[in-house]
Amino acid sequence: MSNSSRFPRETPRLSRWCVDMFQKHGQAVDITVTENRRSMIRVGKKAGGQVTLRIHHGFEQAPDPLLRDLEAVVSGNRTDAWSRVAAFARTIPAEAAHAPAPVRVRTRGRHVDLQPILDEVNQTFFQGKIEARITWGQQRPQRRRGRKSATVQFGVWDVARKLIRIHPGLDDPRVPPEFLRYLVYHELCHAASPPRRDAEGRNRIHHPDFKALEARYPDLKHMERLSKEMFRLVRGTHGKGRGFSDMNLL
Q1: Could you tell me if 184 and 164 are in contact, meaning their C-beta atoms sit under 8 angstroms apart?
Q2: What is the mean pLDDT of the chain?
Q3: What is the DSSP letter of 159?
Q4: What is the pLDDT of residues 94-104, one digit of tens each?
Q5: Contact (CB, 8 A) for 135 and 165
Q6: What SS3 state is found at 201?
Q7: Which of 29, 60, 123, 193 could form an S-S bond across to 210 if both were Cys, CB 3.0 to 4.6 Å?
């Protein structure tokens, strides 16, 4: 078994560390160096036992003792070593973000214009202080055969573009306006209460402060029940859906 790697930029120390892991432990590591600040380190294992590691390029500057801690984490000894690795991740400075590619914003659908909903929700709950745009998402081609997805992303908050994307399947006269209003509120909550890292360095999107903010929405339980109905409407099947998903969050 040989180790493989994918490096989007020059990372000679991480590359050398990857080779050392194989030579010292016979442990192949499939390593991908990323610029993802949402999940700065993730360790997994493939079916054949090969370790997979996705790691932020900022670890290229980690001191040698920290790389030894990283070795312990990958080898399965995640007690003290993991807390030190997580602490280092929190010290990696944020870099100037690359300008995101332009995206076509389409607020008016066949049945619903999202802009008035965004304006009203922003003003009512956030005094109009949230900088955000909104668009209908792109319709993906349907699968020819096989099981339909068990999840639906009703809404996505793109922090880099300050943009809310709404699932195009909700552009339907059968969708209650109050559900779209709540959906926009949920995504604006992500803008108002961004993710936080816990003591172990993991990114928490729906942390307690976020949940407290979301809980201020009137009749939240009814909205949660509606989300199940909208899942069946969008997917045309019964099942348990994940109402919301997030991307590109720091």
Answers
A1: yes
A2: 79
A3: T
A4: 654 455 667 88
A5: yes
A6: coil
A7: 193
